[in-house]
Amino acid sequence: MKVLTAEQIRKWDEFTIMNEPISSLDLMERAANKCCEWILEKAFDAGAIKIFCGKGNNGGDGLAIARLLAEKGILVEVFIVELGSLGSDDFQANLHRLHAHPVNIHFLQHPDFFPEVSDKDIVIDALFGTGLNRLLEGLYVELIKHINSAATTTISIDIPSGLLADKPTASDVIIHADFTLTFQCLKMCFLFPENEQYFGDVSILDIRLHPAYLFDVPSIYVVTDAAFIKTIYTRRKNFSHKGTFGHALMIAGEYGKMGAAILTTTACLRAGAGLVSAMVPEDQFAIIQTAVPEAMAVGQDEAEQIDFAKYATIGVGPGLGTKETAARLIQRVLSQFNKPIVIDADGLNILSANDELLRDLPPGSIVTPHLKEFERLFGKTENHAERIQRARYFAQKLFIYIIIKGHYSVLACPDGEVYFNSTGNAGMATGGSGDVLTGILTGLLSQNYSPKEACLLGMYVHGDAADIAVKEISQEALVASDINHFLGRSFLALKGK
User: Fold this and answer.
1) What is the Cα–Cα distance from 461 to 440, expressed in whole angstroms?
2) How far apart are CA 73 and CA 378, in angstroms?
3) Residue that finishes a domain, picked among 157, 188, 219
């Protein structure tokens, strides 16, 4: 799904109104009905539902929700911020409709008249939607502070009021929602980790905006989903053999860090590489060949005699260490190998200490930093939006693929496009999870997936395997080897089995 700006979403509404066709008021009614369905399904045990409305279309949504809930016999009160403006046409139309129902409507002109909100109440925030383009001030600031101070469940309509839809918000005067009911697609603000405290659990409500609009609207930002990934995933042909799927080399591990080598090598095999060799210290051969009997072992001290060009691809870094011998090993790989490689962990630390090595990466290579590694490689940033733009710049400049790991992991591509991965959970915040991703990406590259395809498919199955795993073992109990164990389930799901 494309991630659209607030302006593009507004035009999508207009396109739907013109081409369905449907009136703007009826489209608002459709959105309000979806919100009410969600609220009724939750079956909140509420003393009352207090709906706070601005006078724009987000406030119109709130008024329509109030009427629909009142028709179901639910106790609703409405509080409208009154600053002298008339309000949008659809707001006025819904206010007129609401007057015919037994709903108390209050107009707020001063903080002295803010209502008491008890912990038994449900608050619905319909003050501002995606159209907000400036920081709040005056009465709105006081009202948001008042709502946030209450120990109550808060539901925001479309986005939490005070939050800017497309860029970081340089203010903390933002509704702290427990739930956000957003329409049709994710907004960019939900992809920034610094905003997590504001939006709570996000539900995307399909209000049937006209699908034709998406075909032509430009966006460099895309959130991947199963349907998208299935267009990338390639089924194996019956007459395939191990040579069909490439020979991958994993350069990983040192004394005390062989667990990383085991995890990444196993992941490479589980991702489907035909042959996998693990280049590890020779005195650690017994560990790797016992733990991963399917892999071959190559000594790191043999690097001078190895012809790296014989491999389909190379994964470098997990548990490798940052000693001078490791740095020389990476230098040798980069001087001999001209196909895309995957670099993570200690490999990234070595790159960050040697700028010239970063510039020597083969075109199409993949780097997979977490936030601190990203800073060491590409410099500090003020926020996630700036981080994404920094990644776009260096991906294009160096012609590499940059995966910033985290919730909604970011993929910045050399063509300027940015993808957000939709799978994964907080259970993956555990040692070795990134090592597994490195192995998956390397295994996919060895099978002739393009670097972009390997990134998109690899990120997806990595997170999906963890999502499948936590249903059985919980987020707390998840360890990196569980991701490897459940990878097959993710591939089966892509095959539709």
Assistant:
1) 9
2) 57
3) 219
